Each structure stands twice: as structure tokens, then as C-alpha cells.
Amino acid sequence: MSEVTRVSSGTRPGAGFRGDVQGLRAVAVLLVIAAHARFSGFDGGFVGVDVFFVISGFLITGLLVREVATTGRVSLLGFYARRARRIIPAATVVLVGTVAASAIFLPVLRTTEIFTDAIWASFFAANVRFAVVETDYFATDQPVSPLQHYWSLAVEEQFYVVWPLLLLGLALVVRRRGARGAEGGTSLRALALGALGLLTVASFAWSIWATYDSPATAYFSSFTRGWELGLGAVLAVALSVPVGRRVPRWLLEGAAVVGLLGIASAVLLFNPQTAFPGYAALLPVLGAALLLGVGGLPGGERTGVARLLSWGPARLIGDWSFSLYLWHFPVLRIAGAHWGERSLSPLHLVTALGAIVALSALTFYLVEQPFRRGRWWRLPRVAVALYPASVGILLLALVAGNGWVDRRLGVNDDNPAITSADYEGGPERLSEDPVRALVQASVLAARDGRPVPGRLVPALRGIRQDTAPLGECDYRTGTTRLCPVGDTDAARSMVVIGDSHARAWTPATNLMGERFGYTAYNLVYSGCPASQAERLDPVTKREWPECNDFKEWTLATIAELEPELVLVSSAALPKVIALDGTSVVGFTKPKKFRAVQLDGMRRELEMIRALGPDVALLANTPKLPREPGVCLSSGVADLGGCLFDAGADARRYQLGFAKVGRQVGATVVDAEKWFCYQQQCPSVVGNYVTMRDSEHMTTEYSRTLAGPLAEELGLEQP
Predict the structure, then answer these.
(1) Of 148, 460, 152, residue with least CA distance to 334
(2) 591: how many CB neighbours lie within 10 A of its CB?
(3) Which tens digit of pLDDT belongs to each residue from 388-446?
(4) What Rg, from alpha-carbon coordinates, does the chain have?
(5) Which residues have a Cβ under 8 Å from the Cβ of 490 and sit 6 or more positions away?
(6) Could you tell me which of 327, 224, 330 has the C-alpha nearest to residue 275?
(7) CATH number of domain containing 536
(8) Which of 199, 250, 389, 611 has the fewest CB atoms within 10 Å of its CB?
(9) Is the residue at 718 inside a domain?
(10) From CA 460, how far away is CA 405, in angstroms rounded?
């Protein structure tokens, strides 16, 4: 993505500047931009990144092999100095620019998370960051970091660290064997091909397995992508051997067309549902390798495809490709978030594309070129110092950004909390229940345009991480131990089961156990519903044995514990396995989908009741169209801007669960009354932010519901 397009071959025709490689870069970056801009027909444009990987492996290896052939060694300082000049200035400018633009145009809550992403990106570890948090690269229903594209830069930089060291080690082996001159060059090439071939095959095998086993992580991993750079490297070493015979022109022309068609086919055939990288990545990777290989052979630069790729405008875009790649994603994502559009309108899209071109041109001519060509920066020790300097500059930008965030968050500090007394005696009669009355008052306050209260609980900064703690009993880790909470000395017990919705209730149920004398057990597993309907693994999109095993263990544990009460809470499932166990049912078949969901909940409740305890279904917490924390931190003038209607689809399913619960004799708690009034849901009740995201309670608000929930269940002191 970032190398000087100079290569060498033993025949010399491929030596020097290769315009076709610049053109291939242009193709790659335009495909990526088209995919991220959501142009119709370019769903598979993300394969442009794979083309970049092949080019990077090819060019870097060509430079290193030529250096070893010329000098007999690899200058690590010189190599890393060249990388620093080429990559760090532009990457730093875009990082700082993205941090600044995020602070200005995005909600504060998003901004703080982007600051974290920027730190990871500055250490060339963005791929690790997004893999660890299991980011879905193709997600369209949740905010995407404008720095997510730095993952590919991280993969390349990690390759640049390892590969020169490996080549240097191989050169030392050759030298110790006493091989010199042509013999030494041949030995080195043989060792390099052997080592590269082995690593490339191993990486490809791992890519296949990881894409099947953990696709979200596999997409960003250096281990699953290394073979793409490795193939380019193998090609560069192979082309360093002189070609004795001229390849027929018709064969070169045909191979070049096949290579281009391979990339084009991947763009047209692939989409976000394609398991990637794995086997699928072979198509664009081999296509790119074929184009690079043909261009490096005698006469290859004269093929029709090579001449097309060497066309002046294509070469210009190739020159700008690094800056274009760096700028396109933050501009598109910040523009979309600022204008509130998942897919930008034509006018906004043209504006964004214009900004991308302008920023890329400025970065290329004012940043890339001066650092690459400036005489002072050619001093290796000076160039290497660019890296710590860039980290320092970014940290200063983040300090300034955090100060800006604190000022924005403190704007409402003097505003009072909403109270029921504010609306007593008004035209709308408030509920006698103090919690419901406060919810009513909060809705009325939002309708009246009251200012956002200060000192919100929890604070907006970090609200997305406000997940109910489970201690050592996070069952996603595979543990089967029990962690009693509540009143752990009590003679009676209760069990909470379900997915992340159930987990959100645990601060309330833990406190309820303390107050009313129950030992509480939280048998909750995020994503795994308390339902006999089988959910597909949200990562692999296949059967989910871990979830099924957990649900069986949960029922066995309830039988063993013999609790007095079991509390059940689960969201509606995005996809389930049909009743016959042979097919997958989703929203496209609404009647069958609803039947599977409701039947799954019915059977779950019946099985629990058969074990003896009382059963309570905690139903109908709302699903909001927007995250309250994001809305409240976006500079809204008053609470009215963050007053939402309860999600109709989720509400319909929860009401269906409630009906099923009543039919089987379970106690049903309709929780909507603690969040909404007349199906309008305020982001703030009193001074409590109710939801940490669009569908999960904050821990603090959950605790406030311990008393009302206990009253609803008719719990009494022991």
C-alpha cells in the first residue's frame, strides 16, 4: 500500500519503475473506496486490500533481495528508515486529523472510543484491537470506527518487522556456509523460497481454519493474512532469477487478462456474507500475483493489460493511493455519522468524495513527497526518529481532545435532575408508584424541552462499558462453577437465566437477594437465550454447541439447586434453527420465525416449571432506535432530542413471550413501565441514564429497580 514501485528481475526488463504496478494500486484503492462508499455492484470491493497485500510483499521483497544481491547484507536501519519516511508522516497526519474531526463532528461518546482506536493505530496494532473486541468488518447496523481501516496498515507493518529479520538470518546462514558471488545468491534465493513457501502455506492453512472457526477475528489477523504478503514475496524472489527464454506474447496477454478477471470476479461474486479470507481470498490474491508476475517477465510490460494499468491517470491515482486509502474511510464514516445516514445521499456522497480527493492531494504533495524526497529526512537516524515523534504528536492531540471532551460533558453540570414533584398537579395525573411517576415526569420533561440534567448516573464517558459484572462466573469462558451473590447465608435461593438482557437485570436481582434473604445465582450467557429454540453462533453463523451445552447445564443446575424462584429474561433471536432441525429461519419468514421463537420460549418455561420452582419472566425492556449515551453526548439542546419510541418489532416479540409465559403459569413482569410512558422512552429518568446502549440497562438504573421488581414479584422478608 505504501512502497516505491521499483522492482528488479534477473532479466532487467522488470527493473526500474513499473507503471503497471502503480495502476494495479489504483485499481485496488478504487475498489476499496467504492465498497466503503456502498456503490452498487462493488460489494466485494474489499478485496482491494488483498491486492495491496500482494503488491506490498512483492515490492518489499524485491527491494530486500536486490540489496542482499548488491551488498551481501540487509541494512535494518536503512530499511526501517525508508519505511518510516514513507508511512509515518501521512499516517500521523490522518490520525491527528481524524481525532480532531471526531471531536468536532461526532458525539462525545463516539469520540472517546475513537481516541482509544487512535492509540492502537499509532502502535500499528489496530488489527489486534479490532480482533480482540470481535469487530464485524461488514457491520452496517452499528457505528464503525473511522480508524478501522488502519488494521491493514498494521498487518503490513508487522510483516515489515519480521521479514527483513528472517532474510537477514538466511543471508547469515549462506555466509557461514562460505557461499559467495553467484553461488551465494543462488543459495540465498533457494533458502528464501523454501522459508517463504513454508510460511505461506502454513499461513494459508491457518487462514482456512480460522475463517471457519472464528471469522471475525480471522479477518483482521496477521496470521491469516500473512500468506497474501508471502505469495507476493515468493513471486519477487522467483522473478529475481533470469528468464532464459522469452514467453510467447499470446500467453502473456492471456495470463494478464486472467489475472484481471480474477480480481473483477471477486468484486462481483463476493459480499459481506462471504467467508473471508480463507479459500475465497485465493481469487483476488492469485489474480494480483498473476498480473505482477506477467509484468515482470520479458515483454510483460507491453501487454494490453499492462499498458492499460500504466495509463497516466491510473498511475496518478496509484501515486496517491496511500493517501487515498488513509483518508477515504474517516471521511466517509464521519460524514455518515454527522449527517445521520447509513448510506450517504448523492449530494453528501459527492461532497465526501471531493473532500477525500482534496485531502489526499494535499497529503501527497505536502506530506508524502517532502518526507520521501527531502535530503535531511534521508539520514537514517533522523528518519527512524519519526516514529517516536509521531506517537508524541498523537498523544498531544489526544490530551487536547480529552480536554475538549471534558468541556463538552460539563456543559450541563448545573442543570437539575427531573423530579416527580415538577409535574404534580399538572394536567396529566402521575402514577402512585414513585418509579412509574418519575418515568412519566421524565417523558413530560422531554416533551417540554427541559435541559439535560447535570451529573448523570452513570457518567456518559465509559457508559458503553457499563456492563453488569459477573466476577469469575462469566460463562462465556467455559467455566461451570457457581458464584453465589445476594445473601449468601440465606436458606432460600433464586436463579437468573438468559442472555445479556438477563445479565442487565443482575444488579437489581443481586440487591433484591440481599434485601429479601435470597442466595442468587446468575446463570447468564451473553448471546445465548433462555429458549429451547437453537440460536446460530453469532460469529460463525453455524450451529452453536457451546450455547446448547450451557442451556443443558443450566437446567441441570436448577434441578440440583432447587431454588424457590427462577427469573428468565431473553431478547428475541436474530436467526434460529427451525423446529425440524434442518433449516435456518430468519426475519424473511416472519410467521415461521415467530412460531419457532414462541415455541422455544414456551418449552423452556415448561421445563423449568417441571423442576419445581416458581418462574418469573422479565419481559418487554425496550429496544431503542439510538443509543441514549450517544444521543445525549451529541450536543442536543434538550431532552426532547433524546426521547425515543419503543422499537415495534422487539416489543411485539416480547409481548408474545409474555403471552406464552402467562399460558404456562409463569409470573410475567412487563418492564416497559419502568422505561417508557405511552410507548415513549426518555434517555434520562430523574438523572439516571437508563440504557448503556440501545437495549441493555445501565447497572445503576438496574439497581434502582430492585425494590419495584421485588414488589411486583410479591417477595417478603424471611
Answers:
(1) 148
(2) 8
(3) 899 899 999 999 988 888 887 777 778 899 999 999 877 888 888 999 999 999 999 99
(4) 30
(5) 513, 517, 518, 519, 718
(6) 224
(7) 3.40.50.1110
(8) 250
(9) no
(10) 11
